[in-house]
Amino acid sequence: MSGTIRAAIVGSTGYGGVELIRLLLQHPKVRITSVISSSAAGQLYTDGYPHLTEIITDRLDAVDPELVASKADVVFLATPHGVSAATAPKFLEAGLKVIDLSGDFRLQDGSVYEKYYKHAPADPSYVKKAVYGLAEVFGADVNGASFVANPGCYPTSAALGLVPLVQAGWIDLDSIIIDAKSGVSGAGRGMSLTTHFSEVNENFFAYKINKHQHTPEIEQTLSRVAGRPVTLTFTPHLVPMTRGILSTIYAKLENGRTEAEVHELYRQYYEGRRFVRVRPLGKFPATKEVAGSNYCDIGLSVDARTGRITILSAIDNLVKGAAGQAVQNLNLMMGWDEAEGLAFTPVYP
Amino acid sequence: MSGTIRAAIVGSTGYGGVELIRLLLQHPKVRITSVISSSAAGQLYTDGYPHLTEIITDRLDAVDPELVASKADVVFLATPHGVSAATAPKFLEAGLKVIDLSGDFRLQDGSVYEKYYKHAPADPSYVKKAVYGLAEVFGADVNGASFVANPGCYPTSAALGLVPLVQAGWIDLDSIIIDAKSGVSGAGRGMSLTTHFSEVNENFFAYKINKHQHTPEIEQTLSRVAGRPVTLTFTPHLVPMTRGILSTIYAKLENGRTEAEVHELYRQYYEGRRFVRVRPLGKFPATKEVAGSNYCDIGLSVDARTGRITILSAIDNLVKGAAGQAVQNLNLMMGWDEAEGLAFTPVYP
Amino acid sequence: MSGTIRAAIVGSTGYGGVELIRLLLQHPKVRITSVISSSAAGQLYTDGYPHLTEIITDRLDAVDPELVASKADVVFLATPHGVSAATAPKFLEAGLKVIDLSGDFRLQDGSVYEKYYKHAPADPSYVKKAVYGLAEVFGADVNGASFVANPGCYPTSAALGLVPLVQAGWIDLDSIIIDAKSGVSGAGRGMSLTTHFSEVNENFFAYKINKHQHTPEIEQTLSRVAGRPVTLTFTPHLVPMTRGILSTIYAKLENGRTEAEVHELYRQYYEGRRFVRVRPLGKFPATKEVAGSNYCDIGLSVDARTGRITILSAIDNLVKGAAGQAVQNLNLMMGWDEAEGLAFTPVYP
Amino acid sequence: MSGTIRAAIVGSTGYGGVELIRLLLQHPKVRITSVISSSAAGQLYTDGYPHLTEIITDRLDAVDPELVASKADVVFLATPHGVSAATAPKFLEAGLKVIDLSGDFRLQDGSVYEKYYKHAPADPSYVKKAVYGLAEVFGADVNGASFVANPGCYPTSAALGLVPLVQAGWIDLDSIIIDAKSGVSGAGRGMSLTTHFSEVNENFFAYKINKHQHTPEIEQTLSRVAGRPVTLTFTPHLVPMTRGILSTIYAKLENGRTEAEVHELYRQYYEGRRFVRVRPLGKFPATKEVAGSNYCDIGLSVDARTGRITILSAIDNLVKGAAGQAVQNLNLMMGWDEAEGLAFTPVYP
């Protein structure tokens, strides 16, 4: 079919993978030609996901770069951390465009990767080739790229909430605190007590306090924007819901900037960016208001009593925080409109 | 725009209305030209639904048939029961096509309507004109129609689960029991203790036992299919979730029909019907597997010990049970493919 | 301490076990002297259940009947099905009173056990010794007994909802359908996709249709009460909540019995039984109204149109459906007031 | 009954009131002699709360201080803000002990009350008489008192998490940020979109950003402990669950204090206080681990990279955050053990 490209999805049986399928099936310029799983190769895709009955009739392919290269133009890697470090180079060598949804190629410093991920880091020459696909901030790098490291869910929400202020130099960079809350789908389909319904339902708690692997990813982005090292506090929490991330971000505002000035700064920064909606002053986003969509919604408030700004940033962790941003990056890589195939509304309620 | 029609939505601030907006925004042949509310006319639509920020920038229109007729070709009435009885005739007289999502034009017998709905019934001459839009069963009537009574949520799920067996005459018509369970969005956006989070969450209960207004609607459909009066038991329950209906249906199977025969009967009945998925024997649908989509998924099991069949029928109450079926009916009224604008997958998880 | 007995709990790290601990800690006549686990022996109990920090400071004991007999007078077996078949006899031989919360000693017919549980049945001589502890129906048997098979959660809810009518002979015994709905804690703390939060939340589905192991247990109870074999339909469903079971029960009423007569029958049958609350006519129980308590609440409605009765029966599956009824049985075994230590209210909301 | 006192509850039909009933029914030294409601006087209590069927058979009394004084020794005011300002003095004049669960007598500065509560402040002479009942901090004041202002839910969680550090002077008092998350029952039984199930379920959002009325209450407590004014940032969020508050608290640690030192500080501060459980280093509380109980569980972590401490503080908002702490205060007022009637475990799961 002229004008369309063929896509393969590795790790297609995880939540990131199945969300990619939902989005790509609606994309007018993409055809899914291979759904791939190392653990379930040969099985019907719908054995694990009967909601796609009569929609996806394929069996799962094994992970085989040659085979994939014969069937697809682009491959999405929606595998657990530590897998694509080894496989992404093979897919690239086979001539495929690669979008990696794992954390393996996001951190430039391998020793930091190793400290937080407890895996050996990827080959530095490939890390260098990977473009960090935070589309609204580094979109220019993504245009025409062949290899994109898709940002993490928390880092997307946090960075989009902070970048305008950091770039403008209006906050004390040592004062940043990100208190983030995520739905349970962020933990994937794997089983553990922290994804067990009876343990999570009617419960709220923080985890990986002061040691979550998204901390250095957020710091790397803000340091790059600031032009100097940024160290911050990041606390993730689990919310008894399936989808959604809300980051509540705190920082000391400098030079007496007013709420109106900051709001205007955000409005201008995101002008023309389809997927970031800066809410009017006095209004704040809820995760349900972006559910199922690729939006990142931002609201902010300045407290004159403390000189502190509070920023609220909401995304659907599986869309803007994973599969949706990956499709947005594909659009940029191909030179298409960034909203191609992504222009649908949130599902509410 | 050639090839497109203009749509207005009355009662657009309810859950049926906002779901119509989500679906029609994705429909390639429809443009929404008026969002209407009797209670909030003049306000921005997004004041009540900020998830549509930057998507719907319109203010709400008042209910004015002349105005609507000047702006639209078709009007969806997503108003509470008892409202469209009075307004639908006016919209029809003004030359609009009308799709009524309320219960006002579904029941042919006004006295039954009055008994269950506690409202005066609509003018019988208009009731006669209204085509009951259960697309997979009475779709032929809908083709080219101007006035459709869109089925209720429970009746859609229940009737699609029973019609093949009733039409085939394979069950004891006096043995039908429908034990139905719905998410809370079915109760609308109005406030009451039965939609109060702290009352409904971690709770499960039945309501309107032996007196729910959908009982006669289901009986009317099955009686029409059977060619004789059908009386049945229907019990609705509230599930602590937002979307979804599962009907568990019981009946006595006659003449020793086997599970395989019944399964084949369903397969054939729904052959070519895009939105009904008959699951393989041994598999049963879950509401999450149809969430956000227009599918009705059906599974069945025959128990040789009791001679009884158990049928499971799952829909998203706001889509196939309301707005999605209304769009499907619009497609049939216009002579379009019934799946036009509705060919998206469930949102999972 | 004079007047108290010492209790041990095998399988104390499951949900049945931890609920026994909650209840026994409040019981004025019982002291917990050993918490036992085959898989976690030696660990601190609070490693797995930090909500008991500073309350339970014990380490888990291994399963050792001699040791248990030296420390306790009664042992609760809250182990998975198939375990107590082997261990209960040993505890009995060691001189302990035994209350088995598993299904291993409930079914008198070993072949039926084997068919539904897929385990070898227990030694028939011990099965014969086990008293089936449905306290409100067979409580006389439990008085002074040494070995009690504690009823299953669904069977408790279903049988209490049906026994008065079955005993009175007022329903068609071939017409019974039990449509039951349970919170997720009924599936235990083990991990599987059906206890995975993102799969279960915002979802509703039936499982083990026409083959759940509680079917023969309910049939056995009703057959015993009826004095003839009863075969029925039982369908369990999973509700996205942690605790609670609601059974919606249908049957054909015979001889034109009225709603008022049936209600009076229930009122009289449960007169003086502290834990069954027959609701006034027109009122129906919700699971939240019994949460955390040992109540079974019952409501009923007769439909003159169909001649059918609908009975609603609600319990907390972990209390009246497991640990609470076990304590109630202990009270009867010891000759104490059946409500000893159980006289607390539901937790609402 | 010798040794018991008689209690009345005004506002007994709200969630604070019904939780007081649950707790007082278990209290060995208290008898409930009047349940009171201004809006539902004359109705059966169980009309609104059928979970208390056969337990509370009383009708609701009207608000009448003379009548109450004739029937009770102590009155709990669980009324909305703005009500007890007028009624508490009348009950006091009538000779009753008064425990006010509303915000009307918590803030010493009437102008601050008026700014945040939008009500006229209470008579300052009565405000002065009211003892602020944060039992673990100001318990000495409560001993023998006649009039207690029971702390708010968020302030209890936040203050217990901060007081040891503030008293020790180990943190920068200008650096305090409290990011708090509450279950929906905190919003009461009143109806609004923010308690509507379909709006709140699968949703997470902040509210009253930089203007919640609990901000000055927390500041007042910390200022009193610090001996100088404390200004801080407080952000409340709504969690899609019924019960529970988790406060995530951030502050700059001064003078290079280590995690071990801070942990020891907390351990010592709460030594002997039955209802505060300081978790071992590396462990953090979840709201479900205190559900239904009067515990406040605290965990903490120091990040050497930022010099910041993160404190997690969890309570059940209806127990330690309202009714439970009120009973604890009653115990102190009467000179009883503070745990009298409150020594039960959390309900888990």
Automatic annotation (TrEMBL), chains A, B, C, D:
CDD domains: AGPR_1_C, AGPR_1_N. Keywords: Amino-acid biosynthesis, Arginine biosynthesis, Cytoplasm, NADP, Oxidoreductase. GO terms for molecular function: N-acetyl-gamma-glutamyl-phosphate reductase activity. Its main location: cytoplasm. It is an enzyme of class 1 (oxidoreductase). Residues 6-145 form the Semialdehyde dehydrogenase NAD-binding domain. Its EC number is 1.2.1.38. SMART domains: Semialdhyde_dh. The keyword Amino-acid biosynthesis applies. InterPro entries: AGPR, AGPR_AS, AGPR_dimerisation_dom, AGPR_type-1, NAD(P)-bd_dom_sf, Semialdehyde_DH_NAD-bd. Coiled coil: none annotated. It is found in: Cytoplasm. The active site is at C153. PROSITE patterns: ARGC. Gene3D superfamilies: Dihydrodipicolinate Reductase, domain 2 (3.30.360.10), NAD(P)-binding Rossmann-like Domain (3.40.50.720). Belongs to the NAGSA dehydrogenase family. Type 1 subfamily. Catalyzes the NADPH-dependent reduction of N-acetyl-5-glutamyl phosphate to yield N-acetyl-L-glutamate 5-semialdehyde. This is N-acetyl-gamma-glutamyl-phosphate reductase. It comes from Paenibacillus thermoaerophilus. The gene is argC.
